[in-house]
Amino acid sequence: MSGIGRTLALAGLIGTGLALGGCELGPKQSQQTGFRGTGMAQIVDPDHVAKLGAIPPPPYVLPDDSGPRARETYQNVRVLGDVSTERFNHLMAAMNQWVAPPEQGCNYCHNPENMASDEKYTKVVARRMLQMTRDDLGVFLVRRHV
Fold first, then answer.
1. Separation of alpha carbons 96 and 91, rounded Å
2. 71: which residues sit within 8 A by CB, 6+ positions away?
3. CA-angle at 86, arms to 84 and 92, nearest 5°
4. What is the C-alpha to C-alpha distance for residues 137 and 3, in angstroms, rounded to an integer?
5. In the chain, alpha helices (H)
6. Rounded to whole angstroms, how far apart are CA atoms 107 and 123?
7. Mapping DSSP to helix (H, G, I), strand (E, B) and coil, where does residue 37 land?
8. Contacts of 31 (CB under 8 A, 6+ apart)
9. Domain segments of the chain: what residues?
10. Residue 36 — left, alpha, or beta (φ > 0 → left; ψ -120 to 50 → alpha)?
11. How far apart are CA 114 and CA 117, in angstroms?
């Protein structure tokens, strides 16, 4: 093999290695998401999904919705003021478990000196997400006469 042939062979091997370097090993699941022939497919690595999809258990058993309302117990409760204080505490504990880093806890969204303060951006975003969820579910439930 001449010098040019070796160089081309080496370049081909390196090119193949680089092209396949981004491939993930293991079985994949694919699902057609568009019309036939369009090449629209969702490809999923089940091992990766299993790692990401771990749902933590509820912080404790969901309490009943009786008792004083959250707006009566706490200040600056704009979205969930109509639920009981116990349900409100349950939701806050669940959000803390799902969203906040363990070392920060409630302080991830709240100022520990003034829990009613809106100075932390994460609290404002969480409130807005709860508002959007409530608005969307309200429309959904009304349409289905629930």
1. 8
2. 77, 81, 82
3. 105
4. 70
5. 3-20, 46-52, 70-73, 85-99, 121-143
6. 10
7. coil
8. 41, 42, 44
9. 70-144
10. beta
11. 6
If residue 30 lies in a helix (H) or strand (E), which one and from where to where? Answer: strand 29-32
- Token pair in block for residue 101: 């880093």
- Pairing outcome for strands 41-44 and 29-32: antiparallel
Residue type, 21: G
Mean pLDDT by 10 residues, the chain (146 residues): 81 80 78 88 81 76 92 93 93 91 93 94 94 84 60
Burial group, residue 137, by CB count within 10 angstroms (0-12, 13-18, 19+): exposed
Integer Cα distance of 101 and 67 in angstroms: 31
Does 70-144 carry CATH code 1.20.120.450?
no
- How many CB atoms within 10 Å of residue 94? 16
Residue 93 has φ and ψ, to the nearest 5°, of -65, -40
Residue 146's pLDDT is: 46
Long-range contact set of residues 10-14: C-beta below 8 Å, sequence gap at least 24 = none
Question: DSSP string of 125-138?
Answer: HHHHHHHHHHHHHH
